[in-house]
Amino acid sequence: MTDNVLEQSSPNVPPSEEVWVRRASERASYDADAVNEVVDSAVVAHVGTVRDGKPVVIPMFVVRDGDHLLLHGAPAAGVIRRGKGVDVCVTMTLLDGLVLARSGFHHSLNYRSAVVIGVAEPVEGEVEKEQALELFMERLVPTRQADLRPTTEKEIRGTGVLKVSLAQASVKVRSGPPVDDEEDYEHGMWAGVVPVTTTFGEPEADPRLNDGIELPANVRAIVGRVL
Amino acid sequence: MTDNVLEQSSPNVPPSEEVWVRRASERASYDADAVNEVVDSAVVAHVGTVRDGKPVVIPMFVVRDGDHLLLHGAPAAGVIRRGKGVDVCVTMTLLDGLVLARSGFHHSLNYRSAVVIGVAEPVEGEVEKEQALELFMERLVPTRQADLRPTTEKEIRGTGVLKVSLAQASVKVRSGPPVDDEEDYEHGMWAGVVPVTTTFGEPEADPRLNDGIELPANVRAIVGRVL
Q: The CATH number of the domain where B51 resides is what?
């Protein structure tokens, strides 16, 4: 394949050579809706940086703010300290199933994965950072922010948030049943998919919760939700 | 903190400065059992490499082989092609819960995360690679390999496996209820943890499955299992 691939008027053209998915490209998409869907399902992103020429990958809490990713951490955390105009690769993966085929070779995983390449910039203005923190809260429990005491200036300063554009992003998805060699379909072997689901379960109250405090409706509302 | 930290006879001393968890170090461990427990719970690892000086993070199927990680991919995939003695950072994260505190600031996530720093080497011998592939199958469905037709030489050549030592690994775990500022415990706010669980669900037969083939006991056995 040549660079010309990037210039075709296909509905599925990578925005740059850097983000181009070369391997199993029939599973890839660069469509913003497809990217957003995966990002919005993820809670944890794996954030890659380069330190002394070597790769470092750490998990961070992620939320989408329009056409950007926001990444949450402590200001002292390495990636936040290094995060002033630093190259990052942010990858989010949702595992959806074990694909059990009729041969070992065609076993696979069903998944949704988004890879975002960009430059991480710290969110620094107090108002902008407070809005970012509210998006993280909204991701955990919609409307919970309104129930909490106001966040102090010190707390806002004490939290690091990085911002990465979603302009350079790709999505890869595998779904559906196994794809076997034609001659193997006659084997008397069970084949199919074992779904993998990640769900929010029954809330566990803090042992130090004061008597008489009921589980609020906004927390109850997320129970059973699937990522 | 100084490098002397690395030389203390603490039970929780990082094996090198590279793998030393500086941030929230009270949550970190370098103990092999703790590392193995996280690795054995993970199915997908996020594998970081450096390409043209920039970070690249891709998800790969992971399994543990004693004191090494094995990573599965197609031979043509970038990280496998680059994987001959290449520096990698392999991170595996299990999300365990949303930690809902009494202030926005103390909200958090419960998780188990392992970070492995090392050099990825391809598994090349045919026997060694076949054994590696059997470990991946055992990870999906224990004992299923015995039910399948033998893997062909061509299929073995058509699969890439990377090996990374677990010698340089750290684990970070957050668990339990929120930790709030002492004065906030009097607030009338519900606080606690919403557990997040990832489970294997009810198998979905391949639409092309021949009539009369029942779900085997070894697949049935993993249904309901929690990662």
A: 2.30.110.10
* Residue B79 covered by a domain: yes
Contact A200 B199 (CB under 8 A): no
Structure token digits, residue A117: 């390449």
Is A9 domain-assigned? yes
Q: Is residue A108 part of a domain?
A: yes
Beta bridge partners of B48: B57, B89
Q: CA B190 to CA A209: how far, in whole Å?
A: 7
Q: Can you list the positions of beta strands (E) in chain A?
A: 28-29, 44-51, 54-65, 68-73, 86-100, 108-122, 160-165, 169-174, 192-200, 204-205
Inter-chain CB proximity B210 and A186 less than 8 Å = yes
- Establish if A219 belongs to a structural domain: no
Tokens of A146: 């309104």
CA B88, B91, B97 angle in degrees (round to 5)? 170
pLDDT digits 0-9 by tens, B125-169: 889 999 999 999 999 999 999 999 999 999 998 889 999 999 999
Number of compact structural domains in chain B: 1
Residue B88, Cα to own-chain centre: how many angstroms?
14
What's the length of chain A? 227
Segment B158-215, tens digit of pLDDT: 889 999 999 999 999 999 999 999 999 998 899 999 999 999 999 999 999 999 999 9
> What interface predicted TM-score (ipTM) does this complex get?
0.90
Contact (CB<8Å) A57/B201? no
Residue of B nearest to A135 (CA): B104
Please give the residue range of the domain that contains residue B125: 3-196
For chain B, positions 96-155, list CB contacts with chain A under 8 A. Answer: 98, 100, 102-105, 107, 109, 111, 113, 115, 117, 133-134, 136-137, 140-141, 144-145, 147-149, 151-152, 155
3-state SS assignment for residue A3 = helix
